[in-house]
């Protein structure tokens, strides 16, 4: 089918039975004309299935969440905000595309584009660590993607390796916005979101101190991720949550002391240190958000307009 034209599956959902918010009658086939090819992931609220549309042979990643479970865990807000993010912030080259969303009696379903390149967790597991040039490329695309979410006044709050998918060429697409939040104003001091969620090692100090937090938590988490990409492990580590959180809040990192990070360029060290500033108002990104982050010397030489067409630096 011509690029950009809606697939039959897409049309089925939007034109006919499965309008958003519409509850299909029991017995209606959920994904007519599709074959189930496998399971891509299982989460707390459901699974992501790999589905192939027979007529076009096109693959989709179908995220199915159990309504009862969502309700029991008070997660209705989360799936609503996830749908909002996907609808508002997309389509964007670095954000996973949502073809449609619908519901049945029992489940809420998001039909997402399928990305065949795996996620960044697997990439790192395979390579151990990335070369700085390679990490820089991924971090550049991430900065753009996070900036795009922020532009729509969403805080992602779930920056982590597992939520960064890759297409067949290795370009990233971020996914999973179940923990995202909406913030009212663009101020760095915005304190509209107050709960603790997300993965422990990526939590910003201001989340842990429960002072309320805003979009700047995503830049902290990007700093954690940057460190993980080149060091192969997180900067703050402990099996014990209490100790981990105390380190995040108090421990000062010294990248020149650690064997794994002292070899990094001055620019990359400054980039990581800038993002991992504990004071929200002094953190890289606190003043000019994505533009400030993208303007850091670490990204010198990155052509932001060409990024999505750039060839991925091969691992050495
Ligand atoms: N796992 C979760 N979402 C996915 C997607 N959209 N494509 C491939 N794998 C996934």
UniProtKB/TrEMBL annotation:
Residue ranges of every copy of the Protein kinase domain listed in the record: 34-299
Keywords linked to the UniProt accession: ATP-binding, Kinase, Nucleotide-binding, Phosphoprotein, Serine/threonine-protein kinase, Transferase
Lineage: superkingdom: Eukaryota
Chain sites annotated for binding ATP: 63
GO term, biological process aspect, one: cytoskeleton organization
Catalysis performed (reactions): L-seryl-[protein] + ATP = O-phospho-L-seryl-[protein] + ADP + H(+); L-threonyl-[protein] + ATP = O-phospho-L-threonyl-[protein] + ADP + H(+)
Top-rank EC class of the record's enzyme: transferase
UniProt EC number: 2.7.11.1
Molecular-function annotations in GO: ATP binding; protein serine/threonine kinase activity
Protein's name in the database: non-specific serine/threonine protein kinase
Shown residues within the full chain: 16 to 331 of 416
